[in-house]
Amino acid sequence: MTTFEQLEEKKIVVRRWVEQVFNGKNLAAVDELKIANYVDWTPFPGQGPALKGFKPVLQLFLHSFPDFCYTIEDELAEGDLVVFRGAWRGTHQRDFMGIPPTGREVTGQRIDTFRVIGDKMVEHWGCGNELDVMQLIGAIPTEHHESPLVSN
Amino acid sequence: MSLEENKSIVRRFLEEIFSFRNLTAIDELVAPEAIDHCKQSLTLWLILSALPDFRISIKTMIAEGDRVAVISTLSGTHQGALMGIAPSNKPVSIVKADIFHVAQGRIVEIWQNGDYIGLMQQIGAVNAQRLTYHLQVAPELSTEVKTSVPVQIRS
Fold first, then answer.
1. Contact present, B15 and B22 (Cβ < 8 Å)
2. A100 in contact with B at a CB cutoff of 8 Å?
3. What pLDDT was estimated at residue B148?
4. In the structure, what pLDDT confidence band is assigned to residue A146 with cuts at 50, 70 and 90?
5. Do A63 and B97 touch (CB under 8 A)?
6. C-alpha distances in angstroms, B10 versus A29, A36, B17, B23, B117?
7. What does the mean pLDDT of chain B come to?
8. Most trustworthy range by pLDDT among A21-25, A126-130, B46-50
9. How many angstroms separate the CA of residue B129 from the nearest CA in chain A?
10. What is the pLDDT of residues B7-41, one digit of tens each?
């Protein structure tokens, strides 16, 4: 049975990721916080395996939305699993997958689950509204409805 | 209420809706003032109507305080039009992550999410090969501007 302290320590690993990598843009911390054989069950389209495949996806988002900022809204932990619910925002200021910068501000909602062993994340299941984000900036055509991120 | 009691309420809710298609269970398990925080255009209901044989398989539940997170897989066959994509009859299976806030034995808030880009890939709406190319030439974190090739997404 994981103790309260152990659960808090696992949450701290993910909080460090948010503070140092997402918001701090410190890519050196990636290898400190995720293992090389990181397993991502919800890869972004085109994402390769392991941490090596994940890094370009991370770089893509941080590069294309240079003011990327993630806010933690809820944390749950049980056993060796940590769930973070959060929101991110950023402005599409640089090329994103061939789409020239639109200048649009996008908001993302995410629920990410990590298996944390020791002081590193080893496995990930992530769900987010990237489909709406990509529609808003024109990376995916919207045929029958508007992205809810389009303001009126 | 205990963590186990909360998990059991959420499990019953998911089973009644997704396995037994019993929508009347909502009255018993969901508070009338419950809030659905879903802000996405691709709503769960749109997806379920495109996958008439939908089913959910709960992989794990994580409970803390008055919340329960559920990681599950949503599967079905793409038999209905979905976001402009005609039925492909392909089997689809995606990860879903949902968080439920339980109070006094009922669900009072739901945050839902799913791997909807994965769903689009599986029904052939997103061409992963072109996107792989872009990830291979993904920029380092720098202020350099790189030239790009337009993405082709089959629609």
1. no
2. yes
3. 38
4. very low
5. no
6. 36, 35, 11, 14, 26
7. 84
8. A21-25
9. 6
10. 999 999 999 988 888 888 889 999 999 998 986 66
In the numeric block, the tokens 């990327």 are attached to: A68
The structure's pTM equals 0.88
Compare B29 and B132 and report the one with higher pLDDT: B29
How far apart CA B119 and CA A105 sit, in angstroms, is 25
Q: How far is residue B150's CA from residue B132's CA, in Å, rounded to a whole number?
A: 13
CATH fold of the domain at B3-127:
Nuclear Transport Factor 2; Chain: A, (3.10.450)
The phi, psi pair for A12, rounded to 5°, reads -60, -35
Q: Is the pLDDT of residue A117 over 80?
A: yes
Q: Does A2 touch chain B (CB under 8 A)?
A: no
Question: Residue written as tokens 């770089």?
Answer: A59
In a domain, A146, yes or no: no
Where residue A111 sits, what CATH number does that domain have?
3.10.450.50
In a domain, A151, yes or no: no
Using DSSP's 3-state secondary structure scheme, residue B111 falls into strand
So what's the pLDDT on residue B120?
87
Minimal CA separation from A152 to chain B, in Å:
15
Of A125, A131, A140, which is closest to B97 when you measure between CB atoms? A125
Q: Do A140 and B63 touch (CB under 8 A)?
A: no
List all residues 6 or more positions away from B6 whose beta carbon is below 8 Å from its beta carbon: B63, B66, B67, B68, B100, B102
A45 touches chain B (CB under 8 A): yes
| Structure-token pair, residue B32 | 């009338």
